[in-house]
Amino acid sequence: MTIMAPRKFGDSSDGVVGGRQTRFEGDLKVTGAAKYALEHPVENLAHGVLVPSTIPAGRVVSVDAQAALASPGVLLVLTPEDDFGMRVATDWGGNRPDEPYYPLSREVRYNGEPVAAVIAESREQAVAAAKLIRVTYEEAPHVASLDDPNAGEGNLLEHLSASWGDAEAAYAAAPVKVEAEYKTPREYHVAMEPHGLTAKWDGDQLTVWEPSQWSHGMARSYAEWFGLPFENVHLISPFIGGGFGSKGAALAHGAVAAFAARKLGRPVKLALTRPQNFTGYGGRAATRQTIKLGATKDGVLQAIVHRGASETSTYGVWPEQTGAATPIMYKVENLSSEHRVVPVNTVTPGALRGPGKNPSAFGIETAMDELAAQLGMDPLELRLKNYADRDYQSGKPWSTRRLREAMTEGAEAFGWSKRNHAPRSMRDGRTLIGWGMACGTFPVIQAPSEAMIRILGNGRVEVVSGAIDMGQGTYTILAQTAAEIFGVPVDQVEVHLGDSRMPGSAIAGGSMLAGSILGAVHKAASAARDELIGLALSEPNSPLRDTGANTLTFSGGRVSVGGEGPSLTLPELMQSLGRDVLEIRRNTLPDGASMEDQRQAWTTMAKVEGPTMGEYSMHSWCAHFAEVRVDEDFGTVRLSRMVSAFDCGRLYNPRMVESQWRGGIIMGIGQALLEEGLVDMRNGRTVNNNVADYLVPTNADVPDIQVISVGVPDYNASALGGKGVGEVGIVGVAPAIANAVFHATGKRVRELPVTLEKLI
Ligand code: MCN
Ligand code: MOS
């Protein structure tokens, strides 16, 4: 499908990098023309549904499928008995065990794990038949959650520990101390578009229409499962209805659908039900952490001691790093931070917007508020007093850190100076008013990417990349970049994304895509422009040939010598050059990178670089200011105002960025006040596994949110000077709101979400 620019363009100055161009694919989405994975029309479809386990631990003894097989329309029932002939694949590439893979497991490791699947002529028939499947289990003892008395202390992850100075001794000697435990529950992505796919085989070629945050990485996993060359898998994902971390990897239901399609010789569509979305991919792990802060009487931090833990599954390790933000927020000479993972009977938890940094910020940013309260000090002043002049963990200087500006400009816009710092000091009748603040951060992650630019004879400029737009604005910023380089309006650009057969790209994850892919598109487009200039100045039929110029200007849709003399539109230039198409492909790997380097770069995480790989320590930063209104009698909390200031470097499109920040903040509101996966301790099931009972913020829960940019371009962070935007918005929101609730009520809630029963 061709992705066209919106019909309305706003200002022409919007169509360049840094402009406020409206969403490029917006028309297609609001008119329904955009096709999401499960809407893709495929002939002769069969429909699959999963049968989830109903016990949390044990094994499948037998599956009685007789009644299901006799049910109308049923084509196939799959059970752990089947010989799948598949091999284990990896999520991120790298070494994998040479072992068979059973997407339907005989071992049951969590409640909801798929143990059978039914494929039928229609979805309704498959659903009806699935209810007739009888599974006999041998149940084993289980550990339901982090709160289970049998959960234990878990396993220390050395590589996530940080330590310098002598934190325990400095804490013991500090005249002012705070110590507290903070907890966050399981949280879920609840993207509007649920998980699901259609898989179709043509001989040994597999096509998969599936929402994806990483077309190349997921295609590689499918190839690994079936022992195919990467090229044989074609994963198509032009539109995604939200991923938030849940759509970066190929999952068991994808394996079941692809296997069934091959076995039946028919395309198979398999959609997870909303409850199955809670177990198809893990949500954010529940965490707990203890923080001890030692300070002088005038509020100079002496020590931070941090001990954290998060849930993982019994078969995989996903650390939700409670110490991810702790070591880099403040200047401190003595720090010790440790993180443990505690295996329980859950699906392996996973990435959810701002993994690690998010619960980590809840800990350290609430603890700082507690310290400020104990000192009788303004929490803003406490933070400024302990401002980290460098990264004390890596010892490296910041590339850019405008957190001071974020704090002061955010405070100014919020009116923070009018705050009476005593708790319960502000009210409006029976409504207590509280003002709270907290900071947040997210690392700059970099990865190589590739892009292709095609200039057609009719003057249209095409940008082609396997990169993903799940709503962040990838289409828009790529169109702006190409429009700027060729000096054409955005409606002369087409963008093609979301396809594993297109040039390779960084994952739409870790807030790394924009910086990575823009670098590649900028490089390819600049190279294409240079090529055009060379041809225009040398080809015999080019009207620009005898100008004697050594370069040309692309502006206002025309190519000229610095705006003087003869000028041509792109179609005129292409015609004079006798060219129907000019195609240039470039990547951001070092020159001369081998094919193997390229394969690794696009299909694995091998070439991803963290925030301190180079000379500097690079991160996005933010400061949130929240106002809550708490009903004194009922304990209900309403967020009434929010001001957040960010340093994300240069903004490629402030309109998209503001939407990303607000989106992150809104998820943070949910985390602060509503979201909580409730585990039934008897059977390890997440009870509220649907969008009626798992509460996320609605419009009525979201007040006016003012967002402010204080960033400056950071050319260490990316080729065009931007830092990550997609995740930092959520980080620090929950502690800002919980700190506001403390200010309103005098009651400290250390366990999210802040619900009324915790206040009364
Ligand atoms: N941007 C910009 N200037 C910058 C950086 C980014 O204009 N300096 C804008 C661009 O519009 C870009 C967007 O912000 O498309 C996000 O860029 P970036 O921070 O690089 O993040 P990614 O493109 O890698 O997107 C992933 C990120 C993550 S990890 C999650 S989780 C998340 C998020 O984006 N999930 C989202 N934002 C989401 N937004 C929507 N609508 N849906 C999701 O599932
Ligand atoms: Mo985002 S949680 O890294 O997809």
UniProtKB/TrEMBL annotation:
SMART domains: Ald_Xan_dh_C
Swiss-Prot/TrEMBL keywords: Molybdenum, Oxidoreductase
Aldehyde oxidase/xanthine dehydrogenase a/b hammerhead domain ranges (all copies): 31-141
SUPFAM superfamilies (alphabetical): CO dehydrogenase molybdoprotein N-domain-like (SSF54665), Molybdenum cofactor-binding domain (SSF56003)
Protein name in the entry: Xanthine dehydrogenase family protein molybdopterin-binding subunit
Organism of this sequence: Neorhizobium turbinariae
